[in-house]
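DEPOSITED CHAIN:
***
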Amino acid sequence: MYEKIERYVVKIIPHKGYEVTGYWQDDIHDLKSRIVFDYKTYKIIEAEVEAEKTPFSICSEGINCIKNLIGKQVGPGFYKTVKSELMSPEGCIHVGELVMGSVKAAIQAASREIPEWVDIEDYKTRWEAWGSIYKDKCIFFAQPDAETKALKMLHECKNKHQGQKAI
């Protein structure tokens, strides 16, 4: 029997971006990552991993490779960067998976809320780019105008729960 728990918590850092804390736990690992993404550039400006439990003492060296991502921009080719910088003989595959999960979590969170310090037109432009990540990888996003429909649906749903004004 094997069980893995993976969880992500995203917080908005006003006038800066998104902080994502990722958790990876199984019978021999207990890892916690913290990554801060700059809102304007989507570059990683802070990255660290703590290990409560790893199977081997050398793992602590591998998890420190996350620092190689500081200054890297999330976008086309980012997964290749993660593979070469983290999922390598000097790195840790689980940290790479935490990073990719953190990217997805940051994008999901960003699609649900417009921080008050973000220009609405800038947000809409970014949403189009984020929506393209899912194009042809999901039955909904393969539809024409899916990005527009999703944006409207997400904000209508959020408004029901928080009483906020939609775009």
